[in-house]
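Need a sequence for this fold. Nothing fancy.
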């Protein structure tokens, strides 16, 4: 029984809704792209450097 709960609650993705619903499902329903935090910070810094 413990193994079942560990598998069920194990995060497959660093973001909670994505971990339970799936990346493609979240992207499709919300109409956005799921990006990891590290990549997001890099994109923000690049945009600020350009302006």
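Here you go.
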């Amino acid at each position: 029984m413990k193994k079942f709960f560990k598998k069920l609650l194990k995060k497959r993705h660093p973001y909670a809704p994505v971990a339970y619903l799936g990346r493609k499902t979240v992207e499709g329903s919300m109409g956005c792209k799921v990006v990891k935090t590290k990549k997001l910070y890099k994109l923000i810094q690049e945009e600020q450097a350009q302006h």
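For context: The CA atoms of residues 44 and 50 lie 10 Å apart.
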